[in-house]
Structures are given as C-alpha cells and as structure tokens.
Amino acid sequence: NFDDMIAHFRSDTTRVEKPKEKSPWIIDIDSITIRNGQMFYEDRQVEAQWDFKDLNIYIPSVYFAGQDTDIGITLSFAEGGSLHTSLAYNLESSDFDLSVELNKLALSTVLPYFRQTFNVSAVEGALTADVNLTGNLSYVMGFSIAGTADLENFRIHDMQEREVIAIERGHVKVDSVDFVNNSFHFDRFAFEGVKGSYELFADSTNTYTGLLKPIDDRGEEPDAAVSIKVDSTAHDPVKLYIREASLKRSSFYYADHTLHRPFDYRISDITLTSRNFDLDAINHLTGRATLQSTGSATLRWQGSFKSMANHNITLNLSNVAMQDFSTYCEAFTA
After folding, report:
1. Is the CB of residue 148 less than 8 Å from the CB of residue 132?
2. How many CB atoms lie within 10 A of CB 75?
3. What is the dihedral of CA 256, 258, 261, 264, to 10 degrees?
4. What residues contact residue 235 under an 8 Å CB cut-off, 6+ apart?
5. 170 falls in which pLDDT band (50, 70, 90)?
6. How far apart are CA 292 and CA 318, in angstroms?
7. 295 near 320, Cβ under 8 Å?
8. What angle do CA 216, 221, 225 make, to 5 degrees?
9. pLDDT tens digits, residue range 18-56?
10. What CA–CA distance (Å, rounded) separates 200 from 205?
11. Quick check: 170 and 191 in contact, CB under 8 A?
12. What are the pLDDT digits (tens) for 300-324?
C-alpha cells in the first residue's frame, strides 16, 4: 500500500552526497622541560662511565607535521666540562640543524675509547668546540659541518707511562666540510707546543712498537654473515683547501739506544707556515728550527701533490756541530 508513494519520490538517478573534505590532523606537544637532573651512563663494552649533572632539557614544542621541532639540552660532566646543544628537526622531511657547544671537556674520560685501538696508559687535555651540523637523516653521510675546535694541554702516555705526543694548544676553524661532494674547506689549522719523539731500543723496539693494538685484540669480532658491497659509482675528487696552516714552538727528540754509545738529537723551536694550501694548486711551505744547541735550519718548499715530478726544495743548515754525530761515526767506521 506504499507503492504509489515510493513511485512518486523515486528518481531515475541516484544522488550521492560527497563527503566533506576533512582537515588533516595536526598534533603538537608544548613545553617539555627537565631541570637540574642527573644521569649516569655506563658503556660496559669498553668499560667507560659518564656522570652527567646539571642536566636541563627544554623542548618548546614537538611538531609532527609542518614546523621544525626545537630541542635544547645543557649538561655538565662530573670530570670537568659542559655541553650545550640545540636541535631543529623536521619529522616529515628528516632535515636537521644541530648546534653543539662543548666547553673544556676533560679528555681523560675518553681513555677507554682510545684503548680500543691503542695501548695507552693515560690521555690528558681539554677539548672545546662550537660546531654546526646540517643535513638529512635519510642520508647517512649527507651532512655538512662548520665551526671551530680548540685543544689544550693534550698528552698521550704509552703503557710504560712515557709521553708519546703532547700538544700545548691547537685550533681548527672549519668553513665547510661536505662529505657528499668530497669538499673540505678549512680557514685555519694552528698548533703550538707540539712535542714528539722517536727512540730506538736495543731489543729492536721503538717508541711506537706495540702502541697500535692488533686487530684481533680490539674486540672486533668478524661476522661471517656480513657481506661487503663495493660502490662502483664514481665519486667527486677530494677538494681540500686550508687558508692558513701553522706550527709553532714545537720540538722533536730522536734517540738511538742500539749503539755502543747511545745517540740523541733534539730539534727545537720548529716553525712551519703555509698559506692557501690547495690539493689542486702549487703550494708553498716555509719553516725553521734549532738543531741541538748551536745549529739552525731553514726550509722552503714549493710543489704540487698532483705531480711528484716537479718540486722545489731548499734546505739551509748553519752552525751544525758535527761532533754531535760522532757516535754514529764510531759505530760505522771505528
């Protein structure tokens, strides 16, 4: 009995209502703060311990779409030094902009990591750095670096507690390092008070014998299931440029204990300077040094690393005391 009513309202075309377009979900979390915290971290694989204090984390907002998320972290190391980081990260694109300010980190804390590769008894010094990294997390090496790093009173001692190398002060300023394009552009490399030595001993060892651990002793267990893939893609040639490089107030000590009368020789007041160093150009290097107590040496070099066949080297020696080498004369001619 409703057929006539249904027929009256029936239409040959069916009208379908289109759903209204919905706005995408936008989620953000505001004002995440941790103040005056403490954290202890232990790396049992290398037996390293890190004690962090004055830990502060501030995240104004976490954006899951659209805007970058800003994260700021500050902390102090119990052994000395402090760290401040600021990160801007986009969760959609994976782009990041990371600033790191490290102030006088005590390098004694990284001794366990040195011991993974070297047989050393002590590492001393302080590291300060102000570095900016930008890139995308989708590309492991697709980032660039710029900033400065300073090293103070750096020393490494071998297992006999002999000083292997010492650096009183070092400064590096990076204009840009781009691993994708193999481009390394430095404004300055400056080192002062570098001390090195090389000694030969009667048991056929030297200063650096045993300093580097054999691969089997580094805790690196080979994995038979790991396959190594060689990337055959052609890479850009390395582009290295250093506007100014210098070495000042440095010294080198050489000793030979294999002779009947031990021989030793000290080179001090070493100074080396190079400007506008470029792997693709002709470079210049000048230097001078004091030989033992009376002698002196000056050095001038001009050449290109692209061609080892064309180099100009001038070495001038003055007031070198030949009796300093009498020990070798006795050993080979007496």
Report:
1. no
2. 19
3. 0
4. 182
5. very high
6. 12
7. yes
8. 135
9. 555 555 555 566 667 777 778 787 888 888 877 878 777
10. 6
11. yes
12. 999 988 887 788 999 999 999 999 9
Taking the C-alpha atoms of residue 318 and residue 296, their distance in angstroms, rounded to an integer, is: 5
Q: What is each CA distance from 205 to 200, 216, 217, in whole angstroms?
A: 6, 21, 20
Alpha-carbon span 88 to 5, nearest angstrom: 66
Residue 111: phi, psi to the nearest 5?
Answer: -55, -45
| CA-closest candidate to residue 325, choices 287, 317, 201 | 317
User: Pairing between strand 183-200 and 239-256?
Assistant: parallel
Q: Are 100 and 129 in contact (CB under 8 A)?
A: yes
Would you mind telling me the total number of residues written for the chain in this entry?
334
Evaluate if pTM is beyond 0.90: no
CA atoms of 301 and 81, how far apart (whole Å): 41
**Residue where the block lists tokens 């002793």:** 217
C-alpha span between 178 and 26 (Å, rounded) = 35
Indicate the residue type of 231: D
Coil, strand, or helix at residue 229? coil
Question: CA-CA distance, 215 to 121, in Å (whole number)?
Answer: 19
Per-residue pLDDT reduced to its tens digit, 69-109: 677 888 888 888 898 988 888 877 888 899 999 999 999 99
Beta pairing partners, 253 = 197, 266
C-alpha to C-alpha distance for 260 and 235, rounded to whole angstroms:
54
Q: CA-CA distance, 58 to 331, in Å (whole number)?
A: 70
Residue type, 28: D
**Tokens representing residue 288 in the block:** 């001078």
